[in-house]
Amino acid sequence: xxxxxxxxxxxxxxxxxxxxxxxxxxxxxxxxxxxxxxxxxxxxxxxxxxxxxxxxxxxxxxxxxxxxxxxxxxxxx
Length: 77
Hints:
Shape: elongated
Order of helices and strands: HHH
Mean pLDDT: 88
Number of strands: 0
Number of helices: 3
Low-confidence stretches: none
Oligomer: single chain
Radius of gyration: 23 Å
Strand content: under 5%
Helix content: 40-55%
């Protein structure tokens, strides 16, 4: 069983959350993982690559499935 708590900031962390965890999981072993949410942004290089891809000839277009199949075959995934 798992429970996820989403907080806007670490300032929202309080004893109520800890009490809820204790009540839910009682004496069972638990793991607590804290991760920082990061906004994903495209770098200039990523944007350039995407722009170049948009300019490609449609006749050479590969679907996502076709691309994945080719990559799997090439790299034996």
